[in-house]
Amino acid sequence: MPVTKIDRRLRPRPGRVLIVDDEADIRELLDLTLAKMGLSADCVGSVAEATKCLEREPYSLCLTDMRLPDGEGLEIVRLIGKNYGETPVAVITAFGSADNAVAALKAGAFDYLSKPVALAQLRALIKSAIKLPRAEERLEAAETDLGTTGQLIGQSAAMASVREMIGKLARSQAPVYISGESGCGKELAARLIHRQSSRHDAPFIPVNCGAIPENLMESEFFGHRKGAFTGADHDHDGFFQAANGGTLFLDEVADLPLIMQVKLLRAIQEKKVRKLGCTIEEVVDVRIISATHQKLKACVDAASFRQDLYYRLNVIELKIPALRERQEDIPLLVDAAILRISRTNPPEITAEAQRALMAYSYPGNVRELENIIERATALCHDGKVTPDDLQLSADSEIGEGVGRDGETLDDHMNRVERQLIREALAKTGFNRTAAARLMGVSFRSLRYRIERLGIEEE
Asked: Which domains does the chain have, with CATH numbers?
């Protein structure tokens, strides 16, 4: 294959779109919309015709129906993903075909539209796709992020895999579920996906789902009109409106109550929200990234999280490794933390302190490591950090005994968590609300943990 042809595929001509649909009126609607946006289109009605077009012409975007006379739109999605990776492809699904949309996103589709096609959603999708960074721009953004974000620093194979996955996710609009323990960098990963995506110049709105009072959730997520309820003295935009055109990051999504899960599912599927006190839905263009330190599938099995919402959020999973799974990165993270904390005259980590840091289990992951270094920097003398400055003895009580008597890490962490919860309940006279406040978690989170760990009031 000539080099010039490869170059043309990697650098699609701006403004050229491939439309694949066997219905003439849909092709005409899409073509007219693109023309009004200053874009030209090639319109075909089958998989075979689309394949020929892709072989001879580079495109900035492909819009394809899911059902075609000689095959399915998924065939085009896979073909483009394999041979024309710089061309985003969006699928058009029948109304209510949520499963088809999810299947297309899993196969590598950039995004999807439901019939009847809403012009506002169509225009938003086209704008996002055309703005998608090219390979060299993503590489430049990734290198910049690597040099400025401490928690994703690392040369381990695990972190190389995470960074590679972030680059792939940045080229899609698919919902992403980020899993990992507390303190391992889930929000940072979400920010990197946003920063390397076509939405990088739009808002990134992080939301801690466990920190919002249940009676205010609908208003906070979807907004309200003046007079919608007592105290609503002005119009208010919710998180979806604030993130319009950008990314909404739902942290600790497992803490959402079931009634809110239903409303969130509808907003994600319909790409529309309705403010409290308003009768009209408004279109929103928001990418959803969610995360929790809990095992979301276990929450589904326990009936505390809706299965249909789980499958809508967990289209693609990004797993962030715990620090103990990439210990070779600890020296780099320590150096980065010291430079961040003490830009002038950073202290020296003695060999003994280095060995202590390498031997520690870090149940709090990177966040805990940074706290340890910050504390040691404040306590050290003569510009040298010793093992005593690290104060790991008290912290490492949590990490002692892992593997003892055949105990797995999960068993050990559950035992420690159970003990801490029992102590908090005992101190508060088994007042769960007060115990949750004492432990710095939401009441719903504490209630779930009590049920999961089988803790009974004594």
From this structure: 3-130 (3.40.50.2300), 135-319 (3.40.50.300), 323-395 (1.10.8.60), 407-453 (1.10.10)
